[in-house]
Amino acid sequence: MTANDSFGRLDDDDYPAYTMGRAAAMLGTTQGFLRAIGEARLITPLRSDGGHRRYSRYQLRIAARARELVDQGTPIEAACRIVILEDQLEEAQRINAEHHQRSDPAT
Predict the structure, then answer these.
(1) Residue 98, domain member (yes or no)
(2) Tally of CB atoms within 10 A around 79
(3) Residue 1: inside a domain
């Protein structure tokens, strides 16, 4: 892999660029919170060769949404379920919009 290939990953939302400590600091939360949402299966961090958790920007956005809900008083398990349902709804709406675009000859 060349240096240019490595730098290209910086734009990849799914690239696991952040350690647990850095991710927690960016979110203003604890490492325990990240472990808890992992245990609730909201996000599954990748593991480095040494077994350390690594998070992507996409995972951090998901974690930030869960943190918002928890900060508002929602139990962590419920917050994780809400975020999962929101994500599924967004995906279904995107697929539906694509379907309508393909089936409408006027567009």
Answers:
(1) yes
(2) 23
(3) no
